[in-house]
Amino acid sequence: MIKNIRSPLVYYPKTINELLSLYKSMPDSLLYAGGTGILSTRNTKYPELPPNILFLRRIDELSAIRRSEGYLEIGACARLNRILGIGEHVLKPALYAAIKNIATKEVRNIATLGGNICSPYRSKTLMPLLALLDARIELRKQGGSRWLNVRKFIDPDEGFQEGEVLTRVRIPFNNYNHQSFIVTGDRADYRSALTFACFASVQKENIASIKFAAGVGNKGIFRAREFEEALAGRKLPLYGITEDPVFTRLTTALKNQEEEISSFHRRQIEGLFLTFMHSLNDML
Question: In degrees to the nearest 10, what's the CA dihedral of 182, 186, 189, 193?
């Protein structure tokens, strides 16, 4: 017999307005769609859940996927495997690889995009890539809504306000002709997992633009914009980059994050970026 475990009350809103109204009246409710992230953080056989659960799967609008001329718009409750079904030619290689990299096919049949974004360990999976893509998210509450760049959403001061629910993600299409997404370390241990994403646009043997992001556990997202700007316009092939003064901008930027990023992960980030640069040379 299981003692001291009270079954929560589960509510099944069918519209976003109904959801927002319920959430305003019960702000401590648990928003539940796939539940893979929620249950994975519970270490007991019978996880303790809050008294009220708002089940999101019956709200069709939250699972909608729309494609426009300039961006892809995905509902927060769209399942990851359904997003993969859009195809790599639309999602582009990095985003397709990033989603396919998440857990197993069986888990992706349940897990949602919004759940991944709202995970307490956001930087471990899609967040660095979404930040790199300049993705925006819609946050709605009763009586208002706002669009927020993913980079700002990561900032605790800019993220969720009371009563807000993540409803949509808008991902602009990009024309970067070389993309990479890599996850290293133990994905089950957020402290050791490193997510690395890098894009480059190469035109006539020149780096027109390049940008990358790395996420380490729940330490946020690392960018080195001055380094990216310094590489723009450089001619390929680019050999001996570790001896190039430009490379010191990356090492310095990483060094400045030594309280947040371990020396092991700093070396990993440098190594992954160098591997990406070698792949650009190999394109020629």
Answer: -30
Q: Which two tokens stand for residue 141?
A: 């509450």
Determine phi and psi for 72, rounding to 5 degrees: -110, 130
Tell me the pLDDT of the chain averaged across its residues: 90
β-pair partners for 194:
184, 216
**Which residue matches tokens 């990483």?**
254
Rg for the chain (alpha carbons), in Å? 20
Cβ atoms 102, 125 nearer than 8 A: yes
Sign of the Cα pseudo-torsion (161, 165, 168, 174, in order): positive
Pairing of strands 9-11, 52-55: parallel
Strand intervals (E) in 47-108: 52-55, 65-67, 71-75
SS3 170: strand
Q: Does the residue 3 lie in any domain?
A: no
Least confident of 28-32, 95-99, 256-260: 256-260
Q: Which domain holds residue 200?
A: 178-283
Q: How many CB atoms lie within 10 A of CB 79?
A: 19
In a domain, 106, yes or no: yes
Tokens of 147: 């669009």
The answer to whether residues 252 and 191 belong to one domain is yes
Structural tokens at position 145: 């809504």
Q: Is 63 helix (H, G, I), strand (E, B) or coil?
A: helix
Give the per-residue pLDDT at 46. Answer: 67
Smallest CA-to-CA distance from 91 within 104, 72, 76, 106 is with 72
Q: How confident is the model over 180-211, as pLDDT tens digits?
A: 999 988 766 666 789 999 999 999 999 999 99
Place of tokens 């792949």: 279
Is the residue at 2 inside a domain? Answer: no
**Count of domains observed in the chain:** 3
Tokens of 166: 């993540």
Bridge-based pairing of strands 52-55 and 221-222 is unpaired
